[in-house]
Amino acid sequence: MPRLDILLPFSLPSPDHAADLMRALDLPSVALLAARGRVQSSSPRDAFARALPHEAWLAQRFGLARGLDAGGSPPAAPAAMAALGLADPGRWFLLQPAHLHVARDHLVLTDWRNLRIDGAESQALFAAAEAACAAQGHALRYGDERTWFLRADDWTGLKTSTMDAACGHNIDIWMPKGTGERAWRKLQNEIQMEWHMHAVNEARGGQPINTVWLWGGGLCGEDLPVSPYSATYGASGWTAYLDASAQPVNAEHVIADAPQYGLVIIDALSAPALAGDWSAWLAAWRDIESTLLAPLVAALREGRFDGINLLLADGERLLDIAASRASLRKFWIRPSLAALAPVPSAS
């Protein structure tokens, strides 16, 4: 029978605002699944882990755990290159244009989702970065506006961090560490200087594109994803490269397709959570509940699916809620969102 994994990054209430958010959440479908399904919670991640819990879960599911095992980020670059029709041999890293915010005494990486960059801007900045890379003996390839690739065959032990793991933090902690670290910092500084007074940034005004973020290194042709799913819906950012056949999310289409084993990824909660905009986060949750989860849970009740695994995550943990058609018949168990509450601190 068909079954679904539904992954919602940044869907768990922030521990700092948990009491208010838990009172405001009105999610009947989630409450039903959480109360009557089987709930498993991952151990809280290391505060300085270089990939978030949902990113680590995706890497494991698609056979890209090697980077995680070495204490770094998933090797996403080869998958992205393959999806974009680039097949140069060697060790390649994702190199993504970004904005650093200057805080009082440190630099903070901002959310890539909020960075406006069009094709003309990207191509102009890429040309400047390519010259800086060539001067240090590194090839640079253009994928799309937000996705470039740097070749560095000898940086085999370089541990890098995903953009979402580093977002909102002092970047010193999440900067690449290990073999090639000094060479990378020198190259990054060169690119930043090239861009400091670049015509693109002069014209942009408000939020300059003032840095590049390096992560996701892997061997082209070897570190490629192997999907366990018969269909994928809704991938965005680097997850879009895990399955080239991924489709947009639409509950009616998912139900009609009835994939033998499907994956649905909803990223609508990430941007408001990273920005601390909890009103927008609650609004996004309400939309997900009404347009996606309610129809899918109804389909589960009707026997259109045999099971749904709802995977909720934040920066610290991953909550796996597994429900079947049979488990929803436990009418004596009242729906509840209690499982979503943050785990109390051991201190």
UniProtKB/TrEMBL annotation:
InterPro entries, sorted: Regulatory_RpfE
Domain of life: Bacteria
Protein name (Swiss-Prot/TrEMBL): Uncharacterized protein
Organism: Noviherbaspirillum pedocola
